[in-house]
Write a structure and sequence with these properties.
Elements lengths: L29 H18 L3 H7 L9 H9 L4 H13 L7 E2 L2 H11 L7 H7 L2 H8 L19 E6 L4 E6 L7 H13 L6 E5 L9 H11 L4 E9 L3 H11 L7 E2 L14 H5 L2 E9 L10 E6 L6 H12 L3 E4 L12 E4 L6 E4 L3 E3 L6 H4 L5 E2 L12 H9 L2
Parallel strand pairs: 3-4, 4-8, 8-9, 9-13
Antiparallel strand pairs: 1-11, 2-3, 5-7, 5-12, 6-7, 10-11
């Protein structure tokens, strides 16, 4: 149950301003705005997994205890746009790239993606197609800077190159955009078939903040392996009613088919966060198994270049590579939050604004919270990218290793 399906771009990719959020309806009253925030607060209080992680990572920041301060800030907003931006600021205090407000462009992008497989995305579409949301986003202007073209593809997403006098192959991926898979594989697959004589393959996902895990799990990895690779992880759930609907949509079952959290003790997870036993109700075991397909039986060494922007489904790639030995990780610690599935989305009842949030805690094979611990590279070097690969420290580090 990795982040497999669609939308996992981190907050850093977007400018969440409304650019004018006028609709045909009157502006929200103060009471409506406070009621919307209270609704958001209760949904997160009962479903969001990272309150304690946020305290540990951000100087004891206690989001739940700040409720009255947040209400006071909302009371000071003068219009719908200020209210939206204030909600964005409030969610930013959770410091999670999957937890934020949706602007118009992202809202439309997400709807388009989930409508490709409506049955398995029913809970998401129910929220996105809520009458209030449709009215709100239909009247908004878009100022989001999505890194995609009008057909939802990321332009110039892949770069391939043979380097070091033919000793190594290199390719980079900007985004794991699901809309790019078919066109990008027309570049990547012939390239991979041509590199059998190289000593090393460098896959560069620095700056890649996610997309669709199938980009790598169904295409890149199967071509490069000659045996099945398997990685075991765990997913812990708060057990809130709101997020159960998303579980049912994706897997056809609710919490009744999951294991009770007290049973996780038998897994002997030495790094399990203390709050899992206190604040969570259920867990599941997630085994990602990838088999060879159209394999080139690559004999060289594979290196994966990573940095702090590697997040969500690109983080899932990094975690899988580290957990299975598929590739040697080179660069800097990743951004994490790559174990689990799509963030839940929620339409606020008065404004129709939609926010999303991570709905489960992904745990590595030793029980570490992936969002908190992230993934450490095997070889730590500066991950700063350079358009000139001859001056790129991470690339040059790999080339020295294969001399």
């Amino acid at each position: 149950m990795k982040r497999r399906i669609f939308i996992y771009f981190t907050l850093l990719l977007f400018i969440f301003t409304l650019g004018g959020c006028k609709t045909n309806k009157a502006s929200l009253t103060q009471e409506e705005k406070i009621a919307d925030f209270n609704y958001m607060y209760e949904v997160l209080k009962n479903n969001y997994p990272y309150f304690e992680v946020n305290k540990r990572l951000n100087g004891g920041l206690d989001w739940l205890s700040n409720k009255e301060d947040y209400v006071d800030e909302i009371k000071s907003t003068q219009n719908d746009e200020e209210f939206y931006n204030k909600l964005q600021e409030i969610l930013a205090d959770l410091n999670n790239g999957h937890t934020d407000m949706m602007d118009k462009a992202f809202y439309e992008y997400v709807k388009k993606a989930y409508n490709l497989q409506p049955k398995m995305n029913e809970a998401w579409l129910n929220q996105l197609n809520n009458t209030k949301a449709v009215e709100r986003y239909g009247g908004m202007k878009s100022s989001s800077r999505l890194p995609v073209s009008s057909d939802s593809k990321t332009p110039d997403n892949v770069k391939t190159e043979i380097i070091d006098n033919g000793k190594a192959a290199y390719f980079s991926i900007k985004m794991l955009n699901g809309f790019n898979i078919e066109s990008d594989m027309k570049i990547i697959k012939p390239f991979l078939k041509s590199i059998s004589s190289t000593k090393a393959l460098i896959i560069d996902i620095r700056g890649n903040s996610g997309g669709d895990s199938r980009y790598w799990s169904d295409n890149i990895v199967p071509m490069l392996i000659n045996k099945t690779l398997s990685n075991k992880e765990y997913i812990a759930y708060r057990g809130g009613k709101f997020t159960e609907e998303f579980l049912k949509s994706r897997y056809g079952t609710g919490y009744e088919k999951l294991q009770l959290i007290e049973n996780i003790n038998k897994e002997n997870l030495k790094n399990l966060p203390a709050e899992v036993m206190k604040d969570f109700k259920y867990y599941s075991i997630s085994v990602t198994k990838i088999e060879p397909k159209d394999s080139i039986d690559y004999k060289g060494k594979i290196y994966l270049l990573v940095d702090g922007s590697v997040f969500s489904s690109s983080e899932a790639f990094a975690a899988f590579s580290k957990g299975t030995g598929f590739a040697v990780l080179v660069g800097e610690k990743t951004g994490g939050d790559g174990i689990g599935f799509d963030p839940a989305v929620c339409t606020l009842p008065n404004s129709g604004f939609v926010f999303r949030f991570t709905q489960e805690m992904g745990l590595t094979s030793d029980g570490s919270c992936n969002f908190e611990s992230k993934t450490e590279p095997d070889i730590k070097v500066s991950a700063k990218k350079n358009a000139d690969l001859n001056k790129d420290e991470a690339v040059q580090t790999v080339l020295k290793l294969i001399k």
